[in-house]
């Protein structure tokens, strides 16, 4: 058995080319036996991709990824997605350099979220590489959206099956969001910036696994379609808290050279804002996804 459909964590070795070791009951597995910076044969990548969809987020240790290697590895999953709001620099506009410096009070990803769900076609995933990781602090938590959905009552599932939600970047970018004052990473705040708004089903069916998962998040989901924010708030707040219940999560302790690849279609994540004394520098690419249904 190698699937998260099983209630028990599995230390599977139904893989011929890689070793997959789950790190928590809900989701997350470390993969060893592969150097992701090097060109990889299709059979090895197929196992990595299967481990990704089965475990929702996968981790690699002791990797060395220059910009070209990070881009090449991300492209194995899907064409790269360019972030609409985070400002990038240099000749690699698909790479976001996530930097926390001593003195930063705010950080990228400090609320539970799926990435960039304001887009009509949000990214299917992301690759995050630890370039300079503090000796302690700066962990990332992930949550399993399938488990969050499956734990709901039949009555709630029936209610949610009829609901869509409005996702917007109004609180995370643009001049009104005032995100740039207290952090090193900057988002667009120029006067030409315009809000991006999309509607998505509250329960999404994963295009590869066919499983249903809860698809709302604190950074982007503003309200249910056809309702005001005030009317939506009680149920939305319940869902946002429910989705982050500890038993649906795993926590990843970074080292320099660690790599995480998450499936943005069925997970949430949050960067813990507890690095005050040290820099924390990560490089990220995102991969294109499809319209949630
Ligand atoms: C993100 O939200 O993509 C950043 C996560 C992290 O820095 O740990």
Give the arrangement of secondary structure elements.
Elements lengths: L18 E4 L6 E4 L9 H14 L1 E4 L6 H11 L2 E2 L14 E5 L24 E8 L7 E5 H6 L3 H7 L3 E5 L28 E5 L1 E3 L6 E3 L6 E4 L4 H15 L5 E4 L6 E5 L3 E5 L8 E8 L6
Parallel strand pairs: 2-3
Antiparallel strand pairs: 1-2, 3-14, 4-16, 5-16, 6-14, 6-16, 7-13, 7-15, 8-9, 8-12, 10-11
Describe the 3D structure.
It is a single chain. The protein has helices at 42-55, 67-77, 145-150, 154-160, 229-243, and strands at 19-22, 29-32, 57-60, 80-81, 96-100, 125-132, 140-144, 164-168, 197-201, 203-205, 212-214, 221-224, 249-252, 259-263, 267-271, 280-287. By secondary structure, the chain is of the alpha+beta class. It has one domain (19-287): 4-Layer Sandwich (Double-stranded beta-helix), CATH 3.60.130.10. The strands form 4 sheets. Strands 1, 2, 3, 4, 5, 6, 14 and 16 form an 8-stranded mixed β-sheet that branches. A 3-stranded antiparallel β-sheet has the order 13-7-15. It has a 3-stranded antiparallel β-sheet with strand order 9-8-12. Strand 10 and strand 11 (212-214) form a beta hairpin. The longest helix is centred in the C-terminal third of the chain and has 15 residues, at 229-243. The two termini are 28 Å apart. Residues 1-11 have low confidence and may be disordered. Succinic acid is lined by residues 98, 108-109, 115, 128, 140, 269, 271, 282, 284. The site of succinic acid has 10 residues, from strand 15 and strand 16.
